């Protein structure tokens, strides 16, 4: 039996699949979130140094991980679209960007709210937070570029090139910021390095990461469906779907 | 982790504002994202018809 | 092929000479921004000496960003760009030549005038050498990375500000290393590591950025 790898590379076939997947992953996200929050609030103990304020970690670290992971996935789809000239790949990349930007913002917001009780200031020029800030600008740049270009194909390709240049730069940005940070600060303030992380804390973080991951998949697939409906609005299957959805 | 009472849970050892500020903003943003997507979809369907 | 590239460079330099206001605007912007900082943060000599490398770097970065819009816009408007893309010389090399000419006109003047501006901040001799060298190595990198942004935003409305948004995150490592060179030299460690890194960035950008910008040009023009 030969697998038709390209069956779902057309919007028409992928659209219903995306809907089912979004529903499934959404349900999984809710379950994982419930489990993660239970672990985070009712199983994990109080931290010796930071008291209860450390519980922000169950959102901060998963959000930061997702923000970086989504950028790489976005660059992957963008590269695929650039190489094979497939419409759907470009749509996926465009669908990922706003969710990625959302998690980057959440990482920054929660990092700031964690920094205030822990270090006394709303913002610290910690290497990771600074890199997150630059990552937010990278997402915004991608979204702004795509918004400024009317032709969807040119927007896809231009955004793809920008995303690929960005993904190459992310490690460079991170290491240069890390270097800059260690030069300027004596004590290393790392928001995510708890010297001894209790197993329950780590478990809570991991489960919440899965929750965010499933949520991202669901949100991105829903957005991809919207993009498909917008771009393919003159096609038959879209007209049929719109009639059916009435 | 036994909180003892609702008040303790909400107060979060004095850091309630920071902890709940983080969680609530995250929840609100996710709800807003999904809401915007729902609206975008109905707009797209409206444009097709 | 070398003749073609020399032709591109000579043409760009000639055009820049005719519109010398473009060059002067960039240099004047650099001078004004650098002069604004003491007015903003106070004229205390010790403070100024500390911030001088960073201020010079940020101002050079902003000034070279100003000039980026010009790189392809004029040729795109009158069709010369399509001619270049149809020609026999590989587009990547043409872009490299274009970026080199652009740097000669927008980057090199900044490097040459920076010692004069450093006088305003009372920067010491060896630190001045490090700053000038870091700018000499860094401004070409900025032009190379900026070329990608300029090619991506070709012909778009609001291209200027969009270009800045796109290119600034990519500029951050160059700024950190470039300004860091002088800081390291000031603290006694010597700026060699940063300068070597800048050189590496220049080689890396020189190899890949023209090619990426060429791809971006094809995307923007087709």
Give the secondary structure arrangement, pairings included.
The complex is a heterotrimer of chains A (246), B (49) and C (222).
Chain A lengths: L10 H33 L13 H28 L2 H33 L7 H22 L3 H33 L14 H33 L4 H9 L2
Helix pairs in contact in A: 1-6, 2-3, 2-5, 2-6, 3-4, 3-5, 3-6, 4-5
Chain B lengths: L5 H6 L4 H33 L1
Chain C lengths: L1 H17 L1 H22 L3 H23 L2 H9 L1 H7 L4 H16 L1 H13 L4 H28 L6 H28 L5 H30 L1
In words, what does this structure look like?
The complex is a heterotrimer of chains A (246), B (49) and C (222). Chain A is mainly α and 246 residues long. Chain A has one domain. In chain A, 78% of the residues lie in helices and 0% in strands. The mean pLDDT of chain A is 88. Chain B is mostly helical and 49 residues long. The model of chain B has no long low-confidence stretch (mean pLDDT 88). Chain B contains two helices and no strands. Chain B starts with 5 loop residues before the first helix and ends with a helix. Chain C is an all-alpha fold. Chain C has one domain (2-221). Chain C contains ten helices and no strands. Chain C has helices at 2-18, 20-41, 45-67, 70-78, 80-86, 91-106, 108-120, 125-152, 159-186, 192-221. The longest helix of chain C has 30 residues, at 192-221. Chain C is elongated. The A-B interface holds A 41-46, 51-53, 55-56, 59-60, 63, 98-99, 102, 105-106, 109-110, 113-114, 116-117, 215, 219, 222-223, 225-226, 229-230, 233, 238-239, 241-243, 245-246 and B 1, 3, 9, 12-15, 18-19, 21-23, 25-26, 29-30, 33-34, 37, 40-41, 44-45, 47-49.
Keywords:
B: about 50 residues; mainly alpha; about 0% strand; rod-shaped; C: about 220 residues; elongated
């Amino acid at each position: 039996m030969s697998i038709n790898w390209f069956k779902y590379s057309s919007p028409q076939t992928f659209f219903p699949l995306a809907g089912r997947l979004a529903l499934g992953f959404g349900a999984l996200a809710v379950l994982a979130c419930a489990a993660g929050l239970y672990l985070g609030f009712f199983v994990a103990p109080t931290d010796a140094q930071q008291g209860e304020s450390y519980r922000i970690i169950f959102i901060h670290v998963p959000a930061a991980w997702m923000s970086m992971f989504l950028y790489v996935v976005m660059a992957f789809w963008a590269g695929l679209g650039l190489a094979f000239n497939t419409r759907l790949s470009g749509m996926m990349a465009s669908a990922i960007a706003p969710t990625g930007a959302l998690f980057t913002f959440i990482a920054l917001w929660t990092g700031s709210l964690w920094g205030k009780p822990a270090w006394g200031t709303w913002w610290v020029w910690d290497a990771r937070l600074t890199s997150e800030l630059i990552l937010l600008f990278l997402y915004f740049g991608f979204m702004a570029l795509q918004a400024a270009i009317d032709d969807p194909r040119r927007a896809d390709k231009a955004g793809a090139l920008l995303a690929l240049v960005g993904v190459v730069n992310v490690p460079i940005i991170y290491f240069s910021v890390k270097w800059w940070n260690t030069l300027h600060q004596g004590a290393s303030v790392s928001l995510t390095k708890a010297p001894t992380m209790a197993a329950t804390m780590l478990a809570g973080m991991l489960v919440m990461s899965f929750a965010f991951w499933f949520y991202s998949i669901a949100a991105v697939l829903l957005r991809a469906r919207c993009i498909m409906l917008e771009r393919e609005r003159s096609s038959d299957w879209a007209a049929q779907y719109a009639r059916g959805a009435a | 982790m036994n909180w003892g009472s609702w008040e303790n849970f909400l107060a979060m050892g004095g850091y309630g504002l920071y902890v709940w500020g983080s969680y609530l903003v995250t929840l609100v943003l996710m709800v807003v994202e999904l809401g915007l997507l729902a609206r975008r979809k109905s707009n797209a369907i409206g444009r097709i018809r | 092929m070398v003749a073609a590239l020399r032709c591109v460079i000579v043409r760009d330099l000639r055009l820049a000479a005719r519109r010398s206001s473009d060059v002067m605007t960039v240099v004047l912007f650099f001078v004004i921004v650098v002069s604004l900082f003491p007015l903003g943060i106070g004229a205390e000599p010790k403070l100024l000496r500390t911030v001088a490398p960073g201020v010079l770097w940020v101002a050079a970065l902003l000034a070279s960003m100003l000039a980026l819009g010009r790189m392809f816009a004029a040729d795109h408007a009158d069709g010369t760009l399509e001619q270049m893309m149809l020609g026999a010389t590989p587009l990547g090399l043409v872009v490299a030549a274009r970026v080199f000419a652009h740097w000669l006109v927008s980057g090199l003047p900044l490097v040459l005038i920076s010692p004069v501006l450093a006088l305003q901040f009372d920067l010491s001799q060896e630190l001045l050498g490090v700053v000038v060298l870091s700018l000499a190595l860094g401004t070409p990198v900025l032009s190379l990375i900026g070329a990608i942004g300029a090619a991506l935003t070709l012909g778009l409305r609001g291209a200027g500000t969009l270009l800045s948004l796109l290119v600034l995150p990519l500029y951050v490592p160059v700024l950190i290393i470039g300004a860091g060179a002088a800081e390291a030299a000031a603290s006694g460690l010597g700026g060699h590591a940063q300068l070597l890194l800048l050189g590496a960035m220049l080689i890396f950008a020189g190899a890949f950025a023209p090619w990426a910008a060429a791809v971006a040009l094809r995307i923007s023009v087709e």
